[in-house]
Amino acid sequence: MMAHPAEPARYTGSGKLRPEEQIYREMLGAILDRRLEPGMKLVEEDLAKTFGVSRARIRSAFLQLAHDKLINLVPNRGAFIAEPGINEAIEVFSARRMIEDGVVRKVTTHMTPDRATQIRDHLAAEHQAQHDGDHRARIILSGEFHLLLARLAGNLVIEEFLERLILRSSLIIAMYESPLPPDCSHDEHDALLAALTGGDPDAAAACMARHLDAIRDRLQLDHRKPGKTDFARIFGRHPDKAAG
Amino acid sequence: MMAHPAEPARYTGSGKLRPEEQIYREMLGAILDRRLEPGMKLVEEDLAKTFGVSRARIRSAFLQLAHDKLINLVPNRGAFIAEPGINEAIEVFSARRMIEDGVVRKVTTHMTPDRATQIRDHLAAEHQAQHDGDHRARIILSGEFHLLLARLAGNLVIEEFLERLILRSSLIIAMYESPLPPDCSHDEHDALLAALTGGDPDAAAACMARHLDAIRDRLQLDHRKPGKTDFARIFGRHPDKAAG
DNA sequence: GCACACAAAATTGTCAACAATCTACTGGCA
DNA sequence: TGCCAGTAGATTGTTGACAATTTTGTGTGC
Q: Which of A2, B23, B64, B70 has the fewest other C-beta atoms within 10 Å?
């Protein structure tokens, strides 16, 4: 009769627990890798056959992805990979600035040797990926750096929100990144570590603000990468304002 | 062949568009009014019969509520009204401090006469509710005040997140509010208006921080209101550490 | 009397068929 | 030819029945 909330059993392991979680992750990876391109339609039955599951499972995964704003669910029309516009991109990074400002302040004022080590270990992994030329790992680790800080801030609410925001950022970056990314993110992360352990919250917050602005400014928000199905851009025409 | 994202058709009107949205709102209201008490189990079929819809609809509403952290979805066990603990309460208000700090700064620096009027109009409604002794309207309007500020900050990402956070806050307040709430929230909102139009972002941010801390401190986090089904508290015993 | 195993009931999870909707195509008409 | 209505196909939305699981109830042995 008493409610036992218990934990929602969210095994994040790569194992085969919860098929729909597995599907969610596969699709997530495909979207962030641009194997599924922005605007592309996702047909339920095709995916169901591909993954060997029922349509209901696909639908459930859609709900999660839509919740993360990685796909658009249009009633009676279906699911489409999200196409965040310039405005949305700016708002996402603006939101991150607001939130991560508070995060770095908290982390800075509550820094401990153990936490500093955690950050340093993570940076080492980032450098390794950079050295190996592993582009995908670099992007993932780069996002997880920010997530680590949120975790260190000790606020689960913020952590969960930032996790979603980072996914959205990843899609935006995938859409708008410049062809030859200098991607000095790891350098900026180094600078952040210095600021975080420096003990000055204002300085750390400023450093994070600069970092996020830098990521945003490295984007080419007026030149989104054309996808294979993006005929409008491929042929240099816009379907709306088309003219001989 | 091209995707038309379109809008997700979120009619917020009280009409009968989208039955599951209607059900979501009904349950939401019941939870925040404590007609559905924290810890209470929600049986799908009972609700389905009550609302005259299929179980699937109820299930869909559950998903939204779980997403807002207003209910817990436990696999194979069912749905339970959330029981945010002390820790969670603190984290929610801490998160709001971080976010609304940025919000009020942005609103302050971009204040216009029109926006000030919008805020003033809202405060008038709050005072009216206070005068009428309409407790429910006061709580709702009090939350919407913060949401208005988020909207004025012009960031949809933040706005949506804060909306959910305010719902969570409402549940927490319903659980832990002191029996005789002085609830001078509207006075504090008056002070906020002054700070927001004062042009000093730091002052406005400090004012908001004080306000949120005050809300939190008015809670009796060590004395949650017992529900009808909360036997542990009713009988002054804890099921875990039970002893003759 | 208590603990355990077993059975019955209640509840949630899943799926596959059917209905509703949208898209693409065909053919007729001006 | 170009436009529009009507139709066939493809896709999404919904439901009800069935399977799996948990909870409750019962009885037996110690």
A: A2
In chain B, where the domains are located: 19-83, 86-218
CATH topology of B19-83 equal to that of B86-218? no
CATH class of the domain defined by A19-81: mainly alpha
Closest CA to A161 of B71, B73, B69: B69
- Give contacts of B8 with chain A, Cβ < 8 Å: 72-75
SS3 A208: helix
First to last CA, chain B: 71
Restricting to B residues 182-221, those with a Cβ less than 8 Å away from any Cβ of A are none
3-class secondary-structure state, position B79? strand
Record: contact B91-A4, CB cut-off 8 A: no
pLDDT at B187: 86
Q: Identify residue A106 by its one-letter amino acid code.
A: K
- The CA distance from A150 to A144, in Å, is 10
By three-state DSSP, how is residue A41 classified? strand
pLDDT above 70 (res A166): yes
The complex's ipTM works out to: 0.86
Chain A touched by B67 (CB under 8 Å): yes
Contact B40 A8 (CB under 8 A): no
Q: Which residues of chain B are under the pLDDT cut of 50? A: 1-16, 239-244
**Class of the CATH domain delimited by B19-83:** mainly alpha
Q: Is B82 on the interface with A (CB under 8 A)?
A: yes
Q: Is the pLDDT of residue A237 over 60?
A: no
Cβ contact B167:B142 at 8 Å? no
Mean pLDDT of A129-155: 92
CATH code of the domain made up of B86-218? 1.20.120.530
SS3 of residue B146 by DSSP = helix
Assess A39–B contact: CB distance below 8 Å, yes or no: yes
Residue with CA nearest to D13's C1' atom: A76
Closest CA to A166 of A154, A150, A185: A150
**B75/A contact by beta carbon, under 8 A:** yes
The pLDDT of A35-43, averaged and rounded, is 94
What is chain A's Cα-based Rg? 20
> What's the confidence (pLDDT) of residue B209?
97
Specify the 3-state DSSP secondary structure of B23: helix
